[in-house]
Amino acid sequence: xxxxxxxxxxxxxxxxxxxxxxxxxxxxxxxxxxxxxxxxxxxxxxxxxxxxxxxxxxxxxxxxxxxxxxxxxxxxxxxxxxxxxxxxxxxxxxxxxxxxxxxxxxxxxxxxxxxxxxxxx
Length: 121
Known about the structure:
- This protein has one domain.
- The two termini are 26 Å apart.
- The chain has 4 helices and no strands.
- It has 121 residues and is mostly helical.
- Helix 3 (57-83) packs antiparallel against helix 4.
């Protein structure tokens, strides 16, 4: 499924960007850069994991909402740090709220999980 590939790709890119931005924050400073790096690194594993799971629609949708929130939140912080401008007004709070909503959807998916039995000969 395309959503699985998007989540795995995004998780890998988020992890790589998080490591790179952590190094940039350590050498050049910048609170917003360090915050964005931390958020990218802490959310990358859930994106990769949810892309690999035989997930239900609630888990997959929640993970995609987390991804959108992460892009908005980190994108706004990084634009502030490197370009001196914002993505758009309220982008970071909207992104943060989306991440919270996505995580709540992931938690709620525990009540909609469907057990997949392995194929039996």
